[in-house]
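User: I'm curious what two different proteins look like when written out as structure tokens. Can you demonstrate?

Assistant: Sure. I'll show them one after the other, since each token string lines up with its own sequence. Here's the first protein:
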Amino acid sequence: MAARSIGTVTVSFGLVSIPVKLYSATQPSAGLSFNLLHGKCGSRVKQQYICPKDNEIVPRDQMVKGYEFSKDRYVTFTEEELKQLEEKATQSIDIVEFIPIEKIDPIYFDKPYYLGPDKGGAKAYSLLAETMRRSGRVALGRYAARGKQYLVLLRPADNGLIMHQLLYADEVRPFADVPLDKVEVREQELKLAMQLVDQIASDSFKPDAYEDDVRKRVQEAIQRKVDGEELTIAPAESPGGQIIDLMEALKASLGKPAKGSKEASSQTAESQAESEERKPAKRAPRRAEESTRAHAKK
């Protein structure tokens, strides 16, 4: 099914203007969400806001927005004041520089969108994509929408362009905030770790090889509930013995398939089947045993 455009913008590339259409690159509908219901009657509950000081429900037309500048102290803004502060939507992506994509840490990547050429923009659109492809660079630009100003990245992909919203520097915490202990890595440990990497290494990313097992399990449970079936809660498995020694852990890891891979799933299924075969046969009911003995005596 053809993708549906969620907006139109213009990409400014020097004195060249490229009309493009914006498409969502992700599918939030793929996620599962649950509604809150009243356990007594099954009706969906409604959210209300209560003032803890006056102990009364506050309707939306009596609410104002406030910013907490110190503990329990706020400055308030009217809707008109906030509107005045919003960035005016320009419906344009202004490219400000081209840089190698490997110079951008993936931690700054936020939300992706597809860009497709709009009427009259096909040639300039293809020119920009091919220029970035040959130069090995991507475009950084600014985009104003929904009252905000976004830092965006445009990159070539397949035969078109993808736009990523980027986080600003003050939205990313420095890694220096993470406490780290100084340790020494031994050469023997490094060699075993490199062997483990080589064992499960791949030359390309194949997203189709992975799926959300939890979502799949929840969807199956929902369908069973819809069909009127009861769910049985399996007891939690006790964790296996942990290997504390790093060298022993590395040695034990070699030769095992990567967790979550299809090979690991296949081996798990096979081990479960073998476990079922090794289980002792269920004893016949007591009455059946007594009947068999009586028949033998005769």
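Here's a second, unrelated protein for contrast:
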Amino acid sequence: MKTAMILAAGRGSRLKPLTNNIPKALCLVHGIPLIEYHVNNLAKSGFTHIVINHAYLGGKIRQHLGCGDRFGVDIRYSPEPTGGLETGGGIVNALPLLGTEPFVTVNADIYTDFDFSRLHVAENSLANFVLVKKPAFRPHSDFGLSKDNRLSNDNKQYTYTGIACYRPALFEKLKPGRFSVAPLLSQLAEDQSASAEVFHGKWIDIGSPERLKQANA
């Protein structure tokens, strides 16, 4: 795969007052914006085309990353209305920029050393998801994993990382609008039509000031 989408349209309300003046994707970890880590990691993993959606203060993301030439990639932007379109609506809105081949998505508000070059979609799957063992700060788990590495709604003990790869056909029949991708993921798990893998490396969901401090530590 050569195409990836960074989901960066979140408001970052739980990170106020830090996000009063910057979008969540530009919060700093060791002096570098979160989204820049993703761009660099994707470039190192062989991705050449990156799509970024944005809403709240999206112009600051554009100003910081530009067209991507200093990272060795081509960056294109998918602007969204005030309030954003959430994850599902954001992907559907960006489909014209994502092409016809499988693509990777990654949430901008995570900090990870995941190797994106390892991701793929098996021929018998519509998507592949990256999971981690449920961290202590999460009140419940998202998914289980079957013996043949299929995403499952049974025996839930894993958290979805915000990293996945999809076949475009999964979204092509969905209507544009504002909606979360979560119900679609649950349906894929119910139908056993998506694969999954467990990641054991560095991963922090930057959903609070405390976890931002944890990443910086």
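A detail about the second structure: The domain at 3-216 is CATH 3.90.550.10 (Spore Coat Polysaccharide Biosynthesis Protein SpsA; Chain A).
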